[in-house]
Amino acid sequence: MHRSSMENKMLTVYGCPNSRSLRAVWALEEAGADYDYVFVDLFKGAGRAPDFLAINPGGKVPALRLEDGSIVTETGAIALWAAERFPASGLLPADASERAQAYRWLCFGLTELDQALWTIAKHRFALPEKRRVPAIEDTARWEFEKAAALLSARLEAWSWLAGAHFSIADIIASHCLAWAKSAKLSLEGTTLPAYLERCLARPAAQRALAREAAAKGKTQ
Q1: For residue 64, pLDDT beyond 90
Q2: pLDDT band of 219, cuts 50, 70, 90
Q3: 86 and 101, same domain (yes or no)
Q4: Between the CA of residue 102 and those of 50, 79, 185, what are the distances in Å?
């Protein structure tokens, strides 16, 4: 991995396996960054603990503590920060047209794919029971399918969402597809499953998965 003395080891990711924190860890692995990983056991209520709420008052992961001690939350923001902080990673293409597409599809992943999946998750288990509306899942599935069809059309024309090069947009989109599979949503056709397989086969993705699993294992 490409590292330099400027890449401080004080970066800290607060995360939990089987959550969006994989996106942050994956971006940092693609960037070749040195970082610590702190496991926040959301499934045992650690996200609501006072010490973590002092880091992210929203009680969610991921959160990234930067070298200067400041905190960045939201996966899109963390991915953009990593891409800009480590430009040699290529997470944002050098070509202006491809970079614009990376921004476009990053936002698409967050607003069209993620939001439908999160709606399903919230009304299955995340919201207090009295706030859940199970009937909304049918609409959210329909929204996801419409968005996934647009994603598939893009990937039938291009190798990656930005064009010829892997970017942060692919991290967000492929994570959403993996989330969809775990939520028992079908990925129609062959384009999206093949794309997901290519993304998850990347060495940085495999390191990110292993890093989260190892961090969880240390606490058990």
Answers
A1: yes
A2: low
A3: no
A4: 36, 11, 25
The domain containing residue 77 runs over which residues?
12-90+204-218
pLDDT at 85: 97
How do the residues of the chain divide into helix, strand and coil, expressed in percent and rounded to 5? 60, 5, 35
Backbone phi, psi, residue 13, to 5°: -100, 130
Counted domains in the chain = 2
What one-character-per-residue DSSP string does 151-163 give? HHHHHHH-SBTTB
Question: Cα–Cα distance between 160 and 153 in angstroms, integer?
Answer: 12
Q: How far is CA 52 from CA 14, 25, 147, 170, in A?
A: 9, 18, 34, 29
- CA dihedral sign of residues 46, 174, 211, 204: negative
Average pLDDT, the chain: 94
Q: Rounded to the nearest 5 degrees, what angle is found at the Cα of 37, between the Cα atoms of 31 and 39?
A: 140
Q: How many helices (H) and strands (E) does the chain have?
A: 9, 4
206: three-class secondary structure by DSSP: helix
pLDDT digits (tens, 9 = 90+) for 178-202: 999 999 999 989 999 999 999 999 9
pLDDT at 56: 97
Give me the mean pLDDT over the 173-180 stretch.
98
Q: How many whole angstroms separate alpha carbon 94 and alpha carbon 189?
A: 32
Residue type, 86: F
